[in-house]
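Appendix B, example 12.
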Amino acid sequence: MGVLPRADLFVVSTDAYGSAEEVARHVPMDCQIMAVEVSFRWSELRKLKEIPAGTRVLFVNMTQTMAREAITQLNQMGINHLHLIPFYPGAPPQEDVRIAVTPDEMRYVPERIQTKINLGQRACTSGMMIEIALRLELEYLLETPAFQEYFRSIATSNYSFDQMFAKSVRLESQFHILMEILEEGVIGVNVSVEVVPVLRQDTCIGAFAILQRFQDMEARQNELRKQLSHKGHVAKYGFRDIIGSSQAILQAKEILKRMAASESPVLLIGETGTGKELFAHALHQASRRSKEPFVPVNVAAFPENLLESELFGYEEGAFTGARKGGRPGLLEFAHKGTLFLDEVEGMSPLLQVKLLRVLQEKELMRVGGSRLITIDVRIVAATNESLEQKVEEGTFRRDLYYRLNTLPIMIPPLARREDDIFLLIDHFRELLGGDFDLTRPVQEFLKEYPWPGNIRELRNVVEYFIYTGHRHIGLEDLPPTVFRHSQPRLRPVMASGAGAVVPDFQAPVPAPRETPYSQVFRFVLGELYAASEEGISLGRETLLSRARACHLPTSQQEIRSVLAGLADQGLARVTRGRGGSRLTPEGRRRWEDLQASGQNLPPEF
């Protein structure tokens, strides 16, 4: 074909040219070049949303690469409820599939397919059209009704062009009004300006204006971030560290590996103790950001005012005790990398607004600061509660929820990973240096046990086995806390003297009488009573750590259940998030009655 005639701009399809060298052979050297970017139309995506969730659907395209790339794009657009299977000339047949969709490649759809949906040729993205207009100095065309109607029809996972354009028009109008009403001189600059007053005996006699280029400031910030990245902000685990061979865990790992290739936010949804932070580490290690910082933050572990300064940093003098010179926040530490927000449902409304700005505008302002700092951070969030319910209750912003929920994934609980239980037991036994084996009745018991505390509870059980001092673990060696969550037929009769016999495992055994004053119940009641004496509240993490310090086997789920029971009985006020829990006057009287009746905790507690 040779060298093409000169043009103001060449828009190149990556399907037509395989490399930059090939493009250079055909495009004149001094001409502008940009790549084609395509997307689907909202009207076509609505057709896909009408297909029932879980349906197996062929996605038909010319090549395997093109089919997989289009499927990934659909996932980013929110089409995550279908099992999309790439299909192309030469692909193996899929006999059990009845629906096929294609971007105008109907000729490759198998004849036997019953339902065929043609999405039509993908159209140029809004971003590509804007870039063309900017390069050719045709920005005025973007204001025309035809272009704006086009932008509204094209699906995008980016911040709305309409909102960005409206914002720029508002700023331009405000600037014009300002210039009209000001009589004083105005100096307009595109560099950073800092004005420092000169004082003499508390009187301002002048000022110095310090100007510096934004590029220099950003270079210094990047250098600082690199220095901070060597202080432990690294991902320690990969997908190989996620132990398990069950179908549930293999599917979760496979989906996350595909999500790692994206730059969109990821929301990890799962019960307490399922290992969401481990998955976040692995996601970062498999992404293009793997060489950059990985910064984990447990939102529920910080008071609101401290969390704000930790995340966003602060300037000198922002508050009493602020470090001289200020301090960058964790978001700045995570520049170019990943920020993991665990228990994100505990974030206050104020911080939700600030985080939303980071996601939308890629910039932040430190506490007490007056300048915007540009950052490039991928957000991975985790929750063990229903964010949809919190949105309906009005305690979590709907717009932030949809930002974080771009790529949601469920982390399977241990109860759905029956095949992995003994793999994990072997792992923790080796990790903790234990030496024991499980009898057959114990193996059957652990397979049937619901594991409300998930993997964290399983680790605790393994540690308990080690401290029994027994080589062969029988039913009598199980922690007492597991029996209140097991089925009656699984509860063994404990040996109570010489010659006592444990009945056959499968034989129905009467459940021991449950009492509201179990060890964990009484422990929590006593700790809250002691806290009330000091005039403070306690959170469930504090209660859990104190229980472990006393060698009382329990889990976060059990602590949560006990607190809920106290609240239901009117014995305690339980606050979500970081507010903690306090005893009511009735709760204090109940604890005092227990002590007076001799039903207080054993001496070791």
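The first helix runs from residue 20 to 26. Confidence is low (pLDDT under 50) at residues 488-517, 599-605.
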